[in-house]
Amino acid sequence: MANILQHFWSLVFPQTCIVCNERVLVQGEESICTYCRSRLPQTDYHLHPANNVLYQQLVVHLPVKYALAYLLFTKSGRTQQLLHHLKYRDMPELGEELGRWYGAVLAEQAFQHHFDAVVPIPLHKEKLLKRGYNQSYHFALGLGISLGLPVWPEVVVRKSASETQTRKSRLKRWQNVEDIFEVVVEEKVAGSRLLLVDDVITTGATVLSCAFALKEAGCSEISFAALATA
Ligand SMILES: [Zn+2]
User: Fold this and answer.
1) Separation of CA 106 and ligand 1 centre (Å)
2) What is the pTM of this model?
């Protein structure tokens, strides 16, 4: 019944693609039209997972197995627009859709055999309450579906902003975030090969901070996957 209603709704109020804002979505398209999908600024990091700019950037701080990213920020602003919808337009399903697409790309290269689980970077509790969902979790869910891997959002938590305020005296930005994350299910993390997922990786400070916490808890390998990177 819900499907019939949805179908009727879409006839009365046709949905347009969130990237071009022009083309009406047809059956099988969820939020992005096929034309725009084929023109997303994808990286080729899945072909060089241990030899790309993101990998080089992260590996100087921590032993990293692979660094992956689906999209690049471009002048056209398509990636920025997608992220804006994902974060501020109440579209968690967009994260899952993009995650499924990228997961399919990674599955073609047999990446599923290199990880035991996908772990999304947790949001601050305050942000989670405000937004209502963690966009990185939904991207991770999509990756997990296409790769056939479990998603473990429960293994690591992010301390609240007020708890970390007291650590502001530290000098470097990325030492500031060092103690933000806490592993709470050590028995799952220990010995596991984890794919740590964030929506955006720029400086890498956040993902590295979380990776350190997971390493300390005994995970055997860390890889990174971002929805977008600069
Ligand atoms: Zn479009």
Assistant:
1) 24
2) 0.89
